[in-house]
Amino acid sequence: MTGEDMELTTREIDVRLRVLRFDPEKDTEAHFEDYTVRAQPMERLLDCLHKIKWYADTSLALRRSCAHGICGSDAMVINGENALACKVLVKDLKQPITVEPIRGLPVMKDLIVDMDPFFQGYLAVKPWLITDPKEREPDRERLQSQTDRARYDDTTKCILCAACTTSCPIFWADEEYVGPAAIVNAHRFIFDSRDRGGRERLEILSQKDGAFKCRTAFNCTYACPRGIKVTKAIQEVKQAALFKSF
Amino acid sequence: MATVEDVYRKHKPKAFSADRRPSSFEVWSWFFMRISGIILLFLVLIHLYIMHLIGEGVERVDFAFVAARWQNVGWKTFDWAMLFLSLLHGANGVRVITDDYVKSPGKRTAVKATLYTVTGILLIMGTAVLVTFNPESGG
Fold it and tell me: What is the end-to-end Cα distance of chain A in Å, rounded?
């Protein structure tokens, strides 16, 4: 790193933000509010939101927990695209940076949405290891080959941030749709050699609001902050459901 | 101790109630869309080429042209396949979009009833024309 680069990353600049605010106790509809904070180009958007909340306007409501891209709490629409506020850097964003709550879920306050419909879709696919009650319970761990483990590796990366599901145009239109995140988590078990619930999950996902509502818009793949090939996983689930039906 | 199944039953999502019978209708309708889409691509391009591009194009298409063409059972089958696949492909597409955007159950039933009726009438009328066509009757 040259001295000039170093200066660019540590020198504070003015960062202009437009945040969509909504207070259910005062507002009838959401409106944008403008803020300017001082931040280094290498700081994250989440740091700027913290600066607003801690020093400018304590009433700003947002979710974040780990702040390091693992917990999946701070997915929001940043300059029109779904992303985690803790993973995007100020230097990579065009100003003013617009920040909105993720779409398709009811807004509770400011950037906080009601995640219940999202988790209902997740629950629908029974996201846990299903064993065969007729098989003897093993007295040690269930072994798996590296090849079998690799089969569903991509979909184990999901952190349930809802960036994919709330970027999906089908989910915006119809919240009954299970959504990409639920299908990704079904994929994680359907293709797990230790799991015995594949057939049951495929039957659930063959229903009207299941995997076949996907029109391969690819928004989910683009939105996933973990780089999961979401659309590919959904297509693999559809394929498995089709071959099961023959 | 509560098992995961107990938790699932308690918080079971409305849209995925366990009493829904497993059905592979959506699976097959999805598969039909893929297959019919591929077949239609060829049927429609060949149709456009014959009707609009070669010779004097659409200007030469009259009763005599159609009568001559339908002497051949192969072209009758071609036209009927295009009619059948495009109607069903289109109607299924509108059915899926209706499920997405028409929320009220009453309106949804009305829209779908109209859709299925119109599709059925068009399919029957088209088939009737193809089957009962008599080159001697007109011209």
Answer: 59
